[in-house]
Amino acid sequence: MPTSKANEQELSTQKHLEKTTRRTLQDWITLLQHRGPQQKKEQEAWLQVKHHLSAPLAKFVVRQYERQNPVLHSAVVNRLFSGEKRFLRPIHDKLLQQIRHWPHLSVRVNSSYISLRNSRQFATLRVTKEGLIVSLKKCPRVHFRGKNICKTVDPLSGAVCYKITLLDESDVSAELIRALQACYKAGAKD
Asked: Both 81 and 117 in a single domain?
């Protein structure tokens, strides 16, 4: 079975990491999980300063950690879904459960939103009092039945963006997953 160029590059980076540090990737992920900081940028800096990894290797370790543990960013995720936004957490969990097996999916938790990435960001999740807003980027022709969808244009790039407001777990439909998958695949082609 042929491997993609991205897979070959990841394997090469992993071998380089293990050769230069004499630790496996899983060792680094375990260390980061048990002793590392919560925020992505802090994790990268911690690996560089405390463990003397180069910036590219630190980013690689953090990216692999995120892939293995997309919902382990619990401190930040819990803060996003705190208070009156708590009712949105099961929607988030169901959505991630549906897509977490996609190859090369990276879930990045930021202070105000969650980024879904393949080779590039293809969607964001924003937690608001009105609902969980899914923004689809670079999405080819979305046919989505529902009153909670809004088509917008990014003022900077001019790209079309679809915003879908999820109000309960039933909104995580097969139709939504197909739309996300179309964006995921379109992002991989860039």
From this structure: yes
